[in-house]
Amino acid sequence: MTNITARRMTLFMVLIVTGCRDGEDAGDAGGTCTPEDDVTFCARLGRNCGVVTELDTCGESRSANCGGCTNPETCGGVGIAGVCGSAVCSDDGWCWENPLPQGDTIFGLSATAADDVWAVGQFGGIHHWNGATMTTTLPPGDPQLTGIDCIEDDVFITGGNGALLHLRR
Predict the structure, then answer these.
(1) Residues 6+ apart with CB under 8 A from 161
(2) Contacts from 65-72 at CB under 8 Å and sequence distance 24+?
(3) Using CA atoms, how far apart are residues 144 and 142, in angstroms rounded to an integer?
(4) Sequence-separated (6 or more) residues with CB below 8 Å from residue 131
(5) Which residues of the chain have pLDDT under 50?
(6) The whole model's pTM is what?
């Protein structure tokens, strides 16, 4: 095979492999991409309210206003940004706000009192309930945390890849 034939074959293979992305016009020699309209953009992302910023089908970052919600729903009302919803509450005031206060799978839980509860989870979150609010801290390296134990003023946390953390309250 000559050098010129090899180059033509490589160019032919590159053209076959790359193809067109959604929205591209295969007949356009310039390789331009026509971005989707706002309605299609929001629907593809499963969003129906607020301003959403994501990559479009051309691979470009863009923002679109995906609309609003009707009362009693609010944008992000059940903890999912850009989606209309309202919290599901019981008669005595307990509300489900998934994934709030957090969405990690919890692997470890320890408490010294009803207002001092600690939990660790799948994406490295260290969660603390003080009786009124839940706070979350993310340690460096984003380890998967698997165990936690509270002893007096100390909090010991274990995780994957030999992670061992010590917090002082």
Answers:
(1) 143
(2) 65/38, 66/38, 66/42, 67/42
(3) 7
(4) 114, 115, 116
(5) 1-29
(6) 0.43
Question: Is the Cβ–Cβ distance between 55 and 61 less than 8 Å?
Answer: yes
Nearest to 125 by CA among 142, 150, 148, 110: 142
What is the model's pLDDT at position 17? 33
Q: What phi, psi does 85 have (nearest 5°)?
A: 180, 170
DSSP code of 25?
A: -
CATH architecture of 106-168: Beta Barrel (2.40)
Task: State both tokens at 164.
Answer: 């061992």
| Mean pLDDT for all residues in the chain | 76
Cis preceding linkage at 139, omega within 30 = no
Contact in structure between 45 and 54 (CB atoms under 8 Å): yes
pLDDT by residue (tens digit) across 129-164?
Answer: 888 888 888 887 767 889 999 998 899 999 888 888
**Residue whose entry in the numeric block shows the structure tokens 């059940």:** 78
65 in helix, strand or coil?
A: strand
Take residue 26 and report the two structure tokens written for it: 């295969």
Residue ranges per domain, the chain?
106-168
